[in-house]
Amino acid sequence: MRRCPYCKIEIAGDNVKCPLCQSKLMGTGEEPCYPKFEAKKKRSVFYKSQLLAAWVLLIVGLGLDFLVGIQLPGYSDLHWSLLLAMWLLVVEFGIMRQFKPGTGSAGKVTKLVMLTIVMWCITAYFLGFMKITIDLVVPCALAATIVANFVLAFIDKNGNTMSYLLSGMFIGVVPSVICYFVMDKMPLAWVICLMVCVVLFIGAVIFKGRAVAAEFQRRFHL
Ligand SMILES: [Zn+2]
Which domain holds residue 9? Predict the structure, then answer.
């Protein structure tokens, strides 16, 4: 029988991870308790409808752009349907990930925000609103994500505080530091983003310090 060294419980069957804390179990496994269950992925009607809608938008967009030649006013040589296709892909990717079990919310949120920001920058580059994007939109999006991650860190009951905090720190501090060195003068929104990040981190250490320390020991087997 396998054993979870952290939860101090024994797990029958051939589980590799602890069902409570997801840590790796110790000991040797036994015969599986349950027959192999090949779950047929059932996708909801909502999922199928939105997927169809995305395909319709994509095909109509490409047709109007490349075959009919309809252009965005003011952008005569821009194939806007390619931008549309890119965004549809991001949206579908985001929805798909919501259906995929197992990955923590912190990683999910952070990856999706990063992807969205990159897509937004590409769009801004082609449509010509790059300056406001860099000065305002990106830092605001990052600050909002940091706040969301810290809120999740507080309401999380599975001992995943640290992953939220680290995600928050990563997306707050790294771009701000890059921004500081690349730009002559750091835009105000970036300064606010960095301050939000640091203040929330200090708050998290004050309120959740013990939980973070415990999680640190658990994850790194100290
Ligand atoms: Zn456990």
Answer: 1-37
